[in-house]
């Protein structure tokens, strides 16, 4: 591995920095790139490309993947402290759940046991989708689908319980 880093380090670093301006993200990506090179070294076919091309393609693809991940992350702006003081005072407008505070718990009880178990693992224990799949033995796609459908069902049940206010005529 040391030889690969010595031989291709400059190439990988150059490609990564071309796509990623953040030095920390670039360093993390370089590590991912060399891990992938190590894992895929057996797939290298000298008759199809040179070692530089093989490494360069992996580096380019990983750098672009990192760039895409970064673009999907929200940009946080500093919060002005004055509105926070006003928002902390209790008022009906600041309620996060309109109407009966037990409505969410009652709606949750109506969901199937398997969905409630997934909610418990995800929302209460903070497990990721992948961790839930590993723990339950369910496929990752099934975990994601059941959580999403459960959230939709919960939203529908909550909106059915929330009385609508008709405008005065």
From TrEMBL:
Residues 5-72 form the RNA polymerase sigma-70 region domain. One of its GO terms (cellular component) is DNA-directed RNA polymerase complex. Residues 83-93 have a biased composition (Low complexity). InterPro entries: RNA_pol_sigma-70-like (IPR039425), RNA_pol_sigma-70_dom (IPR014284), RNA_pol_sigma70_r2 (IPR007627), RNA_pol_sigma70_r4_t2 (IPR013249), RNA_pol_sigma_r2 (IPR013325), RNA_pol_sigma_r3/r4-like (IPR013324), WH-like_DNA-bd_sf (IPR036388). Pfam families: Sigma70_r2, Sigma70_r4_2. It comes from the Bacteria. Keywords: DNA-directed RNA polymerase, Sigma factor, Transcription, Transcription regulation. Residues 104-154 form the RNA polymerase sigma factor 70 region 4 type domain. Residues 83-104 are annotated as: Disordered. Belongs to the sigma-70 factor family. ECF subfamily. This is DNA-directed RNA polymerase sigma-70 factor. It comes from Haloferula helveola. The lineage of its organism: Bacteria, Pseudomonadati, Verrucomicrobiota, Verrucomicrobiia, Verrucomicrobiales.
């Amino acid at each position: 591995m040391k030889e690969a880093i010595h031989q291709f380090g400059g190439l990988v670093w150059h490609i990564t920095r071309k796509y990623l301006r953040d030095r920390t993200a670039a360093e993390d990506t370089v590590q991912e790139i060399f891990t992938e090179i190590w894992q895929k070294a057996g797939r290298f076919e000298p008759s199809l490309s040179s070692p530089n091309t093989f490494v360069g393609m992996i580096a380019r693809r990983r750098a672009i993947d990192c760039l895409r991940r970064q673009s999907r992350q929200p940009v946080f702006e500093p919060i002005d402290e004055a509105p926070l003081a006003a928002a902390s005072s209790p008022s009906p407008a600041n309620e996060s759940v309109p109407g009966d505070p037990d409505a969410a718990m009652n709606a949750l009880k109506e969901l199937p046991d398997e969905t409630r178990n997934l909610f418990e693992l995800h929302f209460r224990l903070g497990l990721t989708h992948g961790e839930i799949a590993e723990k339950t033995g369910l496929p990752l796609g099934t975990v994601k689908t059941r959580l999403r459908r459960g959230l939709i069902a919960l939203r529908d049940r909550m909106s059915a319980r929330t009385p609508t206010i008709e405008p005065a005529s």
